[in-house]
Protein 1
Amino acid sequence: MRIALTMRITEAPGTAELRDAISHDWLARLAAWDMTPVPVPNILAQPEAYLDGLGVDLLVLTGGDDLGVTLERDATESRLLAHAVGKGLAVLGVCRGMQLINHHLGGRLSRIDDHVACSHDIVVEPVWRDLYDGRTTVNSFHALGIPADGLAEGLAAAAFDSEGHVEAFHHRTKPLAGVMWHPERPDAPAEDRRLIESLTAEGAFWT
């Protein structure tokens, strides 16, 4: 299984050079799951054609940085998302990636407190309970959240935190999902592997 991963834009210490970067956590996690990571650069003239040429089973819009911080990344990921949805390629948004999907489709984000570098419980909706228990614990590294009334049209909540913020969603008919936690980092649910496998093998498995 080949997984396309979007990347952060960082600046190398002591230089003015911008670089694309992907956490080793992603590479190690996918290797442990017998999946092949395929990073996608941020300054391609035709990211859609590049994605087509990779022959991947899933596009993961990874976490890191708020929307609007690195415009090149925002543009690349928005184009990749639109292209993947149009082609029927499965997409998983992680943290920032989930926020980008919601924003791209017309949803709303809001500031959220006490969700950075911690763990908390979530309640999983029945539609995902074949993968996750009804209540599970996830890691958390985000300062922006999605209020219950902030989901874009076409999206449905799959999990909530204790304050009612959306912690996971899926598109009602397309193979498109998002989770606010980080499957690649410690304290992520072990069931995240099944989520990725179900998305790639079945597409919109919740329909």
Protein 2
Amino acid sequence: MDIHEKLKAAGLGWMDLNVDAIIAESASRKASPADVLARLLDGELEARRMRSVGRRLSMAKIPVQKSVADFNWAWPKKIDQDMVKDLLRLGFLKEKGNIVFMGGVGLGKTHLASAVAGEACDRNLPVLFTTAVEMVNNLQAATAVNGLQKAVRRYAAPVLLVIDELGYLPIDRKGADLFFQVISARHERASTVVTTNKAYKEWAATFAGDAALTSAILDRLTEKCSTVVIEGLSYRMRNKARN
């Protein structure tokens, strides 16, 4: 069995593909055997990390992967850029803190939430991205087949859960209760990012007008929470705004 067969048998695919080139290049600069081994191991570990990150991204269900580097900071009339960039360092995850991106349509809330989710995936952390309506509909469907506990665990488990588009469509009383169950299950256990077009004082209208339940949701969500308020015109309407 030659070296390539042994590397394949050991599951060291990257090393199998690159060992000859690295040995040849290292010989030309008279690198030590320890240096050669270190380069091969570093390459294999990075390849495994990238495969793992790819799996995390696939499982996260981020609709469109976005980077903060692509965000147009000059467009919103109001946004705390320093706060957002600090949040992208993900320190809030250690504190089991939350983020709420709040503002009108077309101001980049989903873009920033996707960027946060992508950063967490890049650190090989479990992430799930959903919309508020999709989550509630899935929970209601699970209730109909006696699978609610399992469904709640699915949303409670990730280190980071992103709930997009809260407030765009109203949620009925049962849906509001299910939403609360998820927030309650994650409280002080894991971090949640919410994007919304509604100020906190308007959330009761989203949750079937139930002020008590809304208060309970807000109490848990905002206990350790960074609220990023974004103001301005929709970026998607920028061409019309110039006319």
Protein 3
Amino acid sequence: MLLCGCMLGPAYVPPAPPLAEQWKGADGEAVTRETGDYRDWWTVFRDPALNSLIVQGYDNNTDLASAGARVLEARARRALATADLFPQDHAARGDLTFTDPSAQSSTAQPDGIRGTRRDFSIGYEALWELDLWGKYRRAIEAADAELAASIASYDDVLVSLLGEVAAEYVRYRTLQTRLMVARRNLDIQQQSFEIADVRFRGGAVTELDAAQAASLLESTRALIPSLEAQLVISEDALCVLLGLPPTSLPELHTGPAEIPSVPDAVPVGVPAELLRRRPDVREAERRLAAQSERIGIALTEYMPSLSLRGEIGLSADNLGDLFKGSALDAFGGPQFRWRILDFARIVNEVRIQDARFQALISDYEGQVLRAQREVENAIANYLGARAQAHALERSIGAAQRAVDLALIQYREGAADYTRVLDTQQFLVEAHDRYVQIRGTEAGSLVSLFRALGGGWEIRAGRDFLSDAAKAQMRTRTRWGSMLENDDEP
């Protein structure tokens, strides 16, 4: 009993990855260093259509369902590892053997059933290797860590899904707004063309003014089919994220076609919070923990193994004698095994596991560094887009005023059409840039929330697979209660 308490191998201690103390970009009013609640981060946009699409994506996305099935696979692997604490090799058996008592050599063949002896036997045999050095307990702990890693992988897919749905929705709304602006500018340029054409027909100006007005008008008109095609592509991308074939999504065609507005301030906390909130970081750490247990498993091969072997059964020459007391046959005893002449191989097996552990340490540290870079980049992109949006908003106001003044002067003959053309062209470009940068601003905020690892908390209390998927699995295999959510961490 004392020996069964021994466990070989290193005690796992999570490494201390390189972490910055603060986010260098979070030093203003727009991005603060306060800790926020990112569970339902998409609600900061105050957009009911986006909220509805997020729910549909969570319920129906195929990649997320695949990740959920891998969690169930990890649960089954953990149960398999736990079973090794009990007799590992046990089975019932039944035999019917024909032998020829008169055979003098191994080449003699029985002459049919006649003249042969029939041996009947049934029984049960088992082999149980005692876990003296923690081999199987280490395997269970490794399976626990792998299960936690698979759950973190599921969370990572969920975080990516939420970010992709929100980013594609922002892109769609941006394209819608660009299309609306293009059509509005097309109307303005149509009016300018008509003015230039009337003045040309009246002999007040040359045909050049009308030709320039027509050129700008058709250039803007050519932008519209491209935007309409991109809208179709964006909607199809959203359908795939929602687990739907390409179709028309009602959420995109009802209500105002506006780019989601961003909040005045976004809390980002401190870098250390990524260790528990970013699913990919947690997954890397749990893979590392599982590998630490495998070092201990490899070390147990240095030590002898002790097994208990037992067999009980009934054996008789005639079927009628099989259940008599004299037919009872039993055997039991210990079995000793030690790879005493195989130490060189064992040494290298341990080295392999230790090298993998060291590699995973570097992978984990690299994952933490990449996570910090993603947050810093997202903060920089968000702040840059926000500043650009404010500047372009002021630029549009000035450009609109310039177009109005240029048209008045052109009607009065105080300016040629080149000035009108230049001001209108600048207004079209400024409007389009402003809409695009507003979309970039909202998209950068989505990227920031995704980099912070927010959103996976919504799975609390939910199963990893839908009821329909679980029903399919139950028709194929006996799963018992393993398909239900056991409040995994």
Protein 4
Amino acid sequence: MDISGRTRVYAIIGSPVEHSLSPPMHNAGFAAEGIDAVYVAFRVEDVAGALAGIRALGLGGVSVTVPHKMAVMAGLDRIDEMARQVGAVNTIVAEEGELVGYNTDTAGAVAALSAHIEIRGRRFLIIGAGGAARAIGFGLWQRGADLTIANRSEEHGRALAHDLACRFVPLSQAAGVEADCIIQATSVGMYPGPDRSPVPAQLFRPGMVVMDIVYKPRRTRFLREAEGRGCRCIEGTLMLLEQAVEQFRLWTGRTPRQVMEAALRAALAR
């Protein structure tokens, strides 16, 4: 990679970000498309300061990960209508001197799930009520899913359920929910945290579709326990890839999906 004073910088911001697999995907895309750009990772605690830095340094675009997907919205110039409805931003595009917020988690989740289950009319249990849960829930709601939100914090869980016009149950009562698909939309089990699952293994039934948004490790405890009970499992890497391809399109107008997928697989193998 030949980096010069003309090289455009893109980044991911969040905490933590050391585990992120976004840099190899996006850098592979830039190289394949002959775009003079580089993508790096910044661990960020001060969201307002980070947004000021993005403006001052002239970054081309930014991915936003946990825990900042909702917090960044207050500091943006414009927000895409879908992201506004979702209530979370995971992608920032620098457009003519303005920072514009988008959400590609919705498209990424729907693409990943659609390959394994018909969405309309099926029963989905979403674990969590943060930015990722909001994006996934909104995408499923748009496509006619029957939704239930389960969350440890009743306040946040009920707020999301209200926005999606769906049911809420405390996380401790999730085992009583009848579902065709369970989506783990929290950071529980993510590297370098402990090997945990937010729900007991008794929640899983044979034939159920189960997806974890955590992608490192690929086989979280949540997925291992689901697989052990006969569920069909979707790793977080699939959603990660789909949302990243959409981010790349927003930044560049191009979609080098095969190249980005190959880079992701290579990074996972390492």
